[in-house]
Amino acid sequence: MHIVDGALSNEVLIGGAVLAAGGIALGLKSLPAEKMPAAGVLSATFFVASLVHVPIGPSSVHLIMNGLAGLVLGWAAFPALFIALLLQAVFFGFGGITVLGVNTVNIALPAVLVYCICRRGIGSGSPTVAAIWGGIGGGLAIALTAGCVALALALTGDEFLAAAKLTFFAHIPVMIIEALITAAAVYLARKVKPELFESFTQSPSQGVSS
Amino acid sequence: MGHVVGSGRPTLLDTGAPEDRTLINEIDPRTRILAAIAFAVVVVSLHDLRILTGALLFGLALMLMARLPTRSTLRRMVTMDSFIVFMLLLLPFTVPGDEMFTVFGFPATWQGLRQAVEIGLKANAIILTLMALVGSVEPVRLGHALYRLKMPEALVYLLMFMVRYVDVLQQEYLRLRVAMKARGFRPGNNRHTYQSLGYLIGMMLVRAVERSERILGAMKCRGFSGGIPLLGDLAYTGSDVYFALGFGGVLAALLALQFLV
């Protein structure tokens, strides 16, 4: 969900940029050099996943998968999603420059919140329970993102209020689809490689490889 | 299966910018990044529709100077998320003002239309200039340039990894989709589709982690000690000065016109 340049008020743009900078700084702290390849390749995976089109009714939507990104990357989701949005703006013409901070917060803050809320559940003993928590996280992330976008629009002016509300409700089907897909992805990852969800939560001294 | 994916396919981050020397390519990437940011800040502060149209035309001229492919670049420029398009369409009905026409009893106003056009012009002018100036930089050089502009090292590494692996992983994604298709998978509105796509993404994540372990191993073998040398043969030259003066002149003119109108 990319807001474009010129739509938001200066106060919202500056607020978004400050929040994004803080989030990125915190995210980089949890990213030692050893984890850099893992963070980079996983970020690239989410970049590719966001290009996947999923049929929904007569049309199709592209995935966002920020919930899953949060579950896998933790706080590192902030810098990862920021770079993804930067590349999308520069090379694909999605989004914009002055809104980069707001867009980063809209996508990455829900990812980190989902990580904080659902990481316990993801680590549960049974993959099915983990999948349910994954589904909750996947749906919740889209709900929060739609809420953040709506908030950014509503803070800019009353004339956007109707659009803000519609944006939120139009994303309910997307929430359901993202929840189902995230649940399936978590289920498979838990069965095949449970340590996927621990890559960015264990202490750096434990390392990735020996 | 190579012929299905296609070997001559352009890479994901390939904007079609020419390798050879163009007027824009002569300019240092750092100058171009700073110019694009300055342009965005100036254009966002403008309000007059005629001046904004001028800014959009300026962006078009830059695109031609960078020799980006016209058709695909313009298509990328006008593409917006559907919710933004929807928001712009709603604006005439939500902004109070003089009535233009009514739809089902809801009055549309000129002021609302004006605001929608203003946002559309700003968004397109800025994104076009960004693609012309920065999108035509080779991605790895973009990383070096951002590093020299004091972007944190870790963010630059992340950018470099993404630039490299987005393409590798997209090839992998396409290969997996071909494999699914060969087994009769057809996407539709059903649980099976969502579950299969979820497994696909889960599998890609598992493979990504395993790939990153091999990458880290290979990097350590070559003496990785926490930093990647960022070579930069970037140097400001005379053409940067002329470009900065000319670009600054255009921005000053845009601001002055806004002030005079």
Automatic annotation (TrEMBL), chain A:
The chain crosses the membrane at residues 12-31, 37-56, 68-91, 97-118, 130-156, 168-189. GO terms for biological process: transition metal ion transport. Keywords: Cell membrane, Membrane, Transmembrane, Transmembrane helix, Transport. The keyword Transmembrane helix applies. InterPro entries: CbiM/NikMN. One of its GO terms (cellular component) is plasma membrane. It is a multi-pass membrane protein. It is found in: Cell membrane. The keyword RNA-binding does not apply. PANTHER family: METAL TRANSPORT PROTEIN HI_1621-RELATED. This is Cobalamin biosynthesis protein CbiM.
Automatic annotation (TrEMBL), chain B:
The keyword Cell inner membrane does not apply. The keyword Transmembrane helix applies. It is a multi-pass membrane protein. It is found in: Cell membrane. Pfam families: CbiQ. GO terms for cellular component: ATP-binding cassette (ABC) transporter complex. InterPro entries: ABC/ECF_trnsptr_transmembrane, ECF_CbiQ, ECF_transporter_component. CDD domains: EcfT. GO terms for biological process: cobalt ion transport. Coiled coil: none annotated. Keywords: Cell membrane, Membrane, Transmembrane, Transmembrane helix. The chain crosses the membrane at residues 33-66, 78-95, 115-137, 241-260. Belongs to the CbiQ family. This is Cobalt ABC transporter permease. It comes from Methyloceanibacter methanicus. The lineage of its organism: Bacteria, Pseudomonadati, Pseudomonadota, Alphaproteobacteria, Hyphomicrobiales.
